[in-house]
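Students often ask why inverse folding is considered easier than folding. One informal answer: many sequences map to the same fold, so there is more than one right answer. In these notes we will look at a single instance of the problem. The structure comes first.
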C-alpha cells in the first residue's frame, strides 16, 4: 500500500506537470488593464506646409537691368535692407524719357482745356427773332401801304367818276383843252411812275443788302451753324426774288404810264377828234382808270397776304430754331461732359507719369537700390543679375506672421476649432514650434479638410514641410477604458473581463463578455457606461483569439 500510494502520488505529480505544460500551449495568455475616471484623449498628426499670411508685391521698373541681387527667396529682410540694385544708365535714360512724356501730357491736357471752353455764339433763336422782327416791320409797312392804297383807290375812283361826268357833255374846244390837260397829267403820271419805281427798287435792294450782311456775319463766325447759314441763304434768295418781282411790277406800271402818255399825245395831235369819239374815249379812259386802280389795290392786298405768310413762316422758323438750339445745347453739354471726362483721364495719366518719374528719381537717388519697407521674407524673385526686367516681373514678399496649412481627414477636422494649440516639428530637429488654429475649411469634397494655423512673428520656414501634432481632451467621464479593451460585433460594443472560477483542479480564470455603451472614443481611449468598474480587469491583448467563456492565463497588468 505504501508503494502504491507513493507510486500514485508520483503519477499525479507527473500528470500535473503535463497538464500545466499542456495549458501553457492551449490556453490563451492575455494582458489586462483597468478603466478609470478621466477624459478621452485625441491625438491628431500629419504634415503641412508653411505659407505666407500676407503677400506683398514690389513692382520693378520695366525695361531696366538688374545689377546685383543681394537677397534670394527664403531670405529674411528687414526694413531698409537692399534686395537688389539696378544699373544706373538705363535708369537715367528712363528718367529723361518720362520727363518728356510728362511734358507732352501736360501740353495735351492744356490743349484739351482750351478746346473745351465755351465760345459765345449767335443762336438760331436769335437769328429767327431778328428775321421775325424784320418780317413784322415789313408787314406793318405793307398794311400801311394797303391802307394808303385803299385811300388812294377811293379818291382816284371818285375823281375818275367826277371827271367822267364832267367830260361826258364837253364841247369840241373843251375836249381839245382837256386833251391838252390830259397830256400834261399823263406826263406827270409817267414821271411819278418812274420815281415810284426807283423808290420801290431801292427799298427791295436795301432788303437784299440786309440779308446779305446777315449771311456775311454768320459766315464770319468761327463755327457757324449749318442750319442758320442755310436759313440766311434762303432768306437772301427770297429777298432777291422779291427785288426782281418789284422791278417787274414797277416796270409794268412805268410802261402803263408811258403808254398812257403816248395815248394822250396821240389824242392831242389828232385834229379830227369829234365829240362822239371823245365821249367813247372818255368812257374807256374811265373804265381803264378804274381797272388800273383795282389792280393797284389788289396788288397791295396780295403784298399784305405775302407779308402775313412770311411772318407766319418766321414764327414757325422761330419754334424750329428753339428746338434746334435745344438740341445744339444738348450736344454742346455732351461735348463738354466728354471733354471733362477726357480731362480727368488725362489728369490721371499725368499723375501716373509724375509718380513713375518720382519713383525713377528716387531709385537714382539711392543709386539703383530696391529696398524692403518692412520685415519680410523674400517669397519670389525670378530675376538674374544682368537680366532685363519685364512687365510682369516683381518681388514677392511674405509679410507678417507665417501660416501653417495641412490636410486632415474630415472626422479629425470635426474635432478641431479655432484657438486650439498645435505643435510643429521639422524633420531631424528636436525644437518644436507652437501654432494656433485659425480656421478649418470643411467644405472640401475629397474627404479632406484644410486646417490653417498661425505662428508667432518671425517663426516658420516659408515653403517648407513639417509634421504637426494636436492633442485634445474631452470632458471628464466616470469610466474611461483603453481603446484596446473595446470590442464590437453584430450585437454592439462589449469588453472581455477576466473572472476567477473554482474547478476540481482549483481556481481558473475565464473571459466574460461585458456589454457597454460607448459615449465617446478616440484612437487611444473610450468613455463607456455599463457594468465596468475601476477594479474590473479587462482584456487588452492576447497571444491567441479569445471569446467569452474561454479560459485564460498569464494575466499581466
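Output (designed amino acids):
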Amino acid at each position: 500500500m505504501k508503494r502504491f500510494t507513493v507510486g500514485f502520488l508520483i503519477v499525479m505529480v507527473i500528470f500535473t506537470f503535463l497538464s500545466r505544460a499542456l495549458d501553457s500551449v492551449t490556453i490563451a495568455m492575455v494582458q489586462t488593464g483597468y478603466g478609470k475616471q478621466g477624459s478621452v484623449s485625441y491625438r491628431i498628426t500629419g504634415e503641412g506646409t508653411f505659407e505666407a499670411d500676407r503677400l506683398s508685391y514690389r513692382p520693378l521698373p520695366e525695361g531696366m537691368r538688374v545689377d546685383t541681387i543681394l537677397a534670394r527667396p527664403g531670405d529674411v529682410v528687414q526694413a531698409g535692407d537692399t534686395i537688389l540694385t539696378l544699373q544706373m544708365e538705363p535708369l537715367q535714360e528712363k528718367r529723361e524719357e518720362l520727363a518728356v512724356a510728362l511734358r507732352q501730357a501736360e501740353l495735351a491736357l492744356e490743349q484739351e482745356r482750351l478746346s473745351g471752353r465755351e465760345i459765345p455764339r449767335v443762336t438760331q433763336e436769335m437769328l429767327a427773332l431778328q428775321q421775325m422782327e424784320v418780317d413784322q416791320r415789313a408787314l406793318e409797312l405793307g398794311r400801311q401801304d394797303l391802307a394808303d392804297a385803299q385811300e388812294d383807290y377811293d379818291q382816284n375812283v371818285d375823281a375818275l367818276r367826277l371827271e367822267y361826268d364832267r367830260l361826258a357833255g364837253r364841247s369840241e374846244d373843251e375836249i381839245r383843252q382837256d386833251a391838252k390837260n390830259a397830256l400834261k397829267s399823263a406826263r406827270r403820271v409817267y414821271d411819278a411812275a418812274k420815281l415810284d419805281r426807283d423808290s420801290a427798287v431801292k427799298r427791295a435792294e436795301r432788303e437784299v443788302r440786309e440779308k446779305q450782311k446777315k449771311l456775311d456775319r454768320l459766315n464770319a463766325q468761327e463755327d457757324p451753324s449749318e442750319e442758320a447759314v442755310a436759313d440766311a441763304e434762303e432768306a437772301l434768295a427770297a429777298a432777291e426774288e422779291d427785288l426782281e418781282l418789284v422791278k417787274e411790277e414797277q416796270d409794268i406800271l412805268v410802261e402803263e404810264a408811258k403808254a398812257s402818255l403816248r395815248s394822250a399825245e396821240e389824242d392831242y395831235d389828232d385834229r379830227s377828234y369829234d365829240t362822239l369819239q371823245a365821249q367813247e374815249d372818255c368812257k374807256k379812259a374811265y373804265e381803264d382808270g378804274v381797272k388800273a386802280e383795282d389792280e393797284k389795290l389788289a396788288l397791295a392786298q396780295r403784298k399784305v397776304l405775302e407779308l402775313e405768310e412770311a411772318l407766319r413762316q418766321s414764327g414757325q422758323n422761330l419754334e424750329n430754331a428753339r428746338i434746334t438750339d435745344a438740341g445744339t445745347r444738348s450736344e454742346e453739354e455732351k461735348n463738354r461732359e466728354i471733354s471733362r471726362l477726357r480731362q480727368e483721364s488725362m489728369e490721371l495719366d499725368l499723375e501716373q507719369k509724375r509718380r513713375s518719374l518720382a519713383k525713377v528719381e528716387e531709385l537714382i537717388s539711392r543709386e539703383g537700390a530696391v529696398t524692403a519697407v518692412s520685415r519680410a521674407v523674400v517669397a519670389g524673385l525670378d530675376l538674374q543679375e544682368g537680366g532685363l526686367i519685364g512687365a510682369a516681373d516683381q518681388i514677392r514678399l511674405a509679410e507678417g506672421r507665417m501660416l501653417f496649412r495641412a490636410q486632415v481627414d474630415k472626422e479629425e477636422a470635426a474635432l478641431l476649432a479655432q484657438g486650439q494649440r498645435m505643435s510643429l516639428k521639422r524633420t531631424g530637429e528636436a525644437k518644436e514650434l507652437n501654432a494656433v488654429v485659425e480656421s478649418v475649411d470643411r467644405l472640401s469634397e475629397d474627404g479632406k479638410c484644410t486646417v490653417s494655423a498661425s505662428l508667432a512673428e518671425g517663426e516658420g520656414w516659408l515653403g517648407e514641410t513639417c509634421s504637426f501634432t494636436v492633442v485634445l481632451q474631452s470632458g471628464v467621464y466616470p469610466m474611461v477604458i483603453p481603446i484596446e479593451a473595446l470590442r464590437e460585433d453584430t450585437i454592439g460594443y462589449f469588453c472581455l473581463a477576466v473572472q476567477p472560477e473554482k474547478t476540481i483542479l482549483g481556481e481558473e480564470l475565464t473571459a466574460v463578455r461585458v456589454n457597454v455603451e460607448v459615449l465617446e472614443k478616440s484612437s487611444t481611449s473610450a468613455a463607456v457606461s455599463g457594468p465596468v468598474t475601476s477594479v474590473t480587469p479587462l482584456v487588452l491583448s492576447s497571444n491567441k483569439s479569445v471569446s467569452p467563456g474561454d479560459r485564460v492565463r498569464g494575466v499581466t497588468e
